[in-house]
Design a protein that fits this description.
about 25% strand; 4-stranded mixed beta sheet; alpha/beta; about 325 residues; Arc Repressor Mutant, subunit A; globular; 6-stranded mixed beta sheet; 16 strands
Length: about 325
């Protein structure tokens, strides 16, 4: 049973919003474009794994939780792509969307990727997932659950990716698989681990406790890339030609480039504001960002959206929730 499904990554939403609000010649535009590309590829890899797990057939009860961020040993936070909890064992699955040829080097704990004749070193996902399993063992013990075997896989989402490893590297041979193999390997584990450790009630309780302990991380994207707010392009974007800014004319937004008009083009701009600056905004801040002429225009727009408010007078803030 899917207990906690994966949501579209907030960080990817933020990258998309920030990318739209920077000039292409901005000093960080290339970095953000590259980060957006890799994060989107990672999301596609995770969704390929999710597609495979939709067809999971199990001989016993199980729950699936995705995209968890928990506190492990020494209070250090760790993030897990997918946890599948059976009554007799647990499996952690880390999805990777790599292309080309992968070579897992045991001697150096390194992954080398060769794609389009370019070779580069990548962090070793085996070491990453082994650390996650250690943290998870600790978390379960701290919360009073009995010892239970924890297995792991690295699921490569692209079926055309070639997987190689140094001779005798059994962990890479056994644990690095294509996503299309995940269900078969889970079935094999069910034949290996036959003795139930958890009751059905404990299985459900672990899932609920993990969800309650989840600590999503909401990073400030401007601080992360060291970008000043005055470097952000302001204005309402045109849906048709993407030109910024549209002008407010007689109660609607008009694009001077293509002539398009819209009554609600400001909604997309407000979403981008909330992703880049946060969900709390003063009337003055929204006038600046929308390039609106008066506080009355902003007030009417927010009233039509039925936006919540907090505070009074100059301390009054609109709450932007989308």
């Amino acid at each position: 049973m899917m207990l906690k499904p994966r949501n579209f990554p907030l960080w990817l939403d933020k990258l998309e919003a920030l990318k739209r609000r920077l000039s292409p010649d901005h000093r960080r535009f290339a970095d953000i474009t590259q980060d957006h590309y890799y994060n989107k590829a990672g999301w596609r890899g995770e969704k390929e794994l999710d597609y495979q797990l939709d067809y999971l057939v199990a001989a016993e009860d199980y729950v699936i939780l995705q995209d968890l961020r928990l506190k492990g040993q020494l209070g250090r936070e760790f993030q897990v792509d997918t946890i599948i909890i059976f009554r007799s064992f647990i499996v952690v699955v880390e999805a990777k969307n790599y292309r080309g040829t992968l070579y897992f080097d045991q001697a150096h704990n390194q992954l080398t990727q060769t794609y389009e004749n370019v070779e580069k070193g990548l962090p070793d996902p085996i070491a990453q997932v082994k650390l996650q399993t250690r943290h998870l063992h600790f978390w379960l013990a701290e919360h009073g659950y009995p010892p239970i075997p924890i297995h792991y896989f690295i699921a490569i989402s692209n079926p055309r990716t070639i997987i190689k490893s140094s001779p005798g590297y059994t962990e890479a041979i056994d644990r690095v698989i294509h996503a299309q193999q995940v269900n078969r390997r889970l079935s094999e584990l069910q034949l290996t681990f036959r003795n139930s450790v958890l009751s059905s009630a404990e299985l459900q309780r672990i899932g609920n406790d993990l969800i309650a302990a989840d600590q999503p991380y909401d990073r400030n994207i401007l601080e992360f890339y060291k970008i000043d707010r005055n470097e952000i392009l302001t204005g309402v974007p045109c849906r048709e030609c993407k030109f910024i800014p549209m002008k407010r004319v007689h109660g609607s937004w008009a694009c001077k480039r293509c002539g398009a008009a819209s009554m609600d083009a400001h909604v997309q701009a407000l979403k981008e504001f909330s992703l880049i600056f946060g969900e709390r905004a003063s009337n003055r801040e929204l006038r600046w960002f929308l390039q609106a002429r008066s506080p009355h225009v902003v007030k009417r727009l927010m009233e039509k959206l039925d936006a919540d408010c907090q505070g009074e007078g100059k301390a009054r803030r609109f709450i932007l929730r989308f």
